[in-house]
Each structure stands twice: as structure tokens, then as C-alpha cells.
Write a structure and sequence with these properties.
single chain; mainly beta
Length: about 240
């Protein structure tokens, strides 16, 4: 059956961005106004709706710009569990937002728009750990191929801003490259050079480094230096994390 009027199996993520709408929302408790009394049609110029198919985040080339101010977004998508297990969802927003879920719990109980995440403090782009109590959902048990409808709402009360949703997928069996993986690294600040070193350890549980990556930025450029040990990499993680897409 349909959940919240949308059928499982749809492709993509429905998203609406409302320019200049934050002044009419003002707080977490009023996010329900989005796509209700606040619409794309009655919001400021350059408001838009789109369907994302790759990753659950607002278009950062638009929303993270310093020229984009006091805007809000609302988005929803079905997540279909690839395996049976306990799933946890994550959110990163600037400045505040919520994530709700609608699904069939325990095989019989229909849950409609249960609040999973209520984030009142802003977190940096790609940071799902700054406020664990606010950015993490409780564990949700799903059977393989079971759908859960997720809907997110968020507002930025000044300039720039973002919304991102992710999921941690359980796995009891290590499988090399079982899921496509997106790695993102943000180096913030435009007034001084920054450097970040990432080391991947062997999936055997030893401390052997199989990949070293250094990301460096100066005021004008960014580049990567990758050294591989060995040349062919095989990862067998017990837990797979991926952005929702």
C-alpha cells in the first residue's frame, strides 16, 4: 500500500527550495509551514523544485553560496533496506531542521511521520558527528526490501547553508565493494592554508595502512597526492556507510 500518499519504488528524491522563506518560519516548530502555506510559487525569486537522483543534499552550488540568504527546503524520498537489520539515519544542516519517517513497524503497526531527528544547532557540511544527540536517529529495524518514507525540512537563518541526509547500513558479512561509496572531505576557511591526512587501515583488523591520502589547500588551489600500499586495494568492512541517494 501507499505510505503518506507516495508509492514505494519511485526513483529519485523530491526537493523544494524556498528562497527568503526563513523569516516566515523562524523556528523548528514552524517547519510544517513548508509546502503548506509556504510554497515555491509564493516564495521569493529563484525558488525551485527538483528531483535529485544521486545524493540527498541541497544543491550546494546554489544553497551554500554567500549570496543565498534566509532560505528553507523540504525534501522526501523512499529508502529501501538492502538487508535486514537495524538502520540509523543521520542529518547535517545549517541552521536547523527535522527528519521524519513513515513505515510499517513490526510488520503490522503503521507509523506516520515519526520524528527521527530534531537538529537545532548548525553542523558543518559533511559533518554528521558534531551533535550526536541531535543528528542521529534511533536505530530502526527494517526487513530486507522494506521501504521507509523519509521527509526532511530545514531553514538557514542567514547566508549559505545546506541540508544532507545519510544512513548507516548494517552488514554481518564483509563484502568487498558491496555498496558504492562516496567520500567527501571539507576543508573550511579561506584565510589560511589547510592540510588533512586520511589513512585507510587493512580490513583484516591489523594496523597495516593500505592507502594514504593527503588533501592540501592554499588560497588559490587544491590538489591530492595519493600513495597506494599495495597498488590494488581490497576493502572488506563490517559496516557500510553511504549518503542516501
Amino acid at each position: 500500500p501507499a505510505i503518506e500518499g507516495v508509492w514505494p519504488g519511485m526513483r529519485g528524491l523530491e526537493m523544494e527550495v524556498y528562497m527568503g522563506a526563513e523569516g516566515s518560519v523562524g523556528s523548528l516548530s514552524n517547519l510544517g509551514l513548508l509546502n503548506d502555506t509556504i510554497t515555491v510559487e509564493n516564495s521569493a525569486d529563484k525558488s525551485f523544485r527538483t528531483t535529485e537522483t544521486a545524493i540527498w543534499e541541497t544543491p550546494l552550488n546554489v544553497t551554500a553560496s554567500r549570496d543565498t540568504r534566509r532560505w528553507c527546503s523540504k525534501s522526501k524520498a523512499f529508502f529501501v533496506a538492502p538487508v535486514t537489520g537495524d538502520f540509523r539515519f543521520y542529518m547535517s544542516v545549517e541552521d536547523y531542521g527535522t527528519l521524519h519517517g513513515s513505515w510499517i513497524k513490526n510488520g503490522t503497526q503503521a507509523v506516520a511521520r515519526e520524528l527521527l531527528i530534531d537538529q537545532s544547532w548548525q553542523s558543518p557540511i559533511n559533518d554528521y558527528w558534531k551533535y550526536e544527540a541531535e543528528q542521529w536517529s534511533p536505530l530502526i529495524f527494517l526487513e530486507a526490501n522494506q521501504s521507509i518514507l523519509l521527509d526532511a525540512a530545514q531553514c538557514c537563518n542567514w547566508q549559505g547553508g545546506h541540508l544532507q541526509v545519510a544512513v548507516l547500513i548494517p552488514s554481518d558479512v564483509g563484502t568487498a565493494q558491496s555498496l558504492p561509496e562516496i567520500q567527501k572531505l571539507s576543508i573550511r576557511g579561506d584565510s589560511q592554508a589547510r592540510s588533512q591526512v586520511i589513512s585507510y587501515l587493512s580490513g583484516t583488523g591489523t594496523d597495516d595502512i593500505v592507502l594514504n591520502m593527503t588533501v592540501t589547500t592554499d588560497l588559490e588551489h587544491a590538489w591530492m597526492l595519493v600513495q597506494e600500499y599495495p597498488a590494488t586495494l581490497t576493502f572488506k568492512p563490517s559496516i557500510n556507510g553511504t549518503n542516501l541517494g
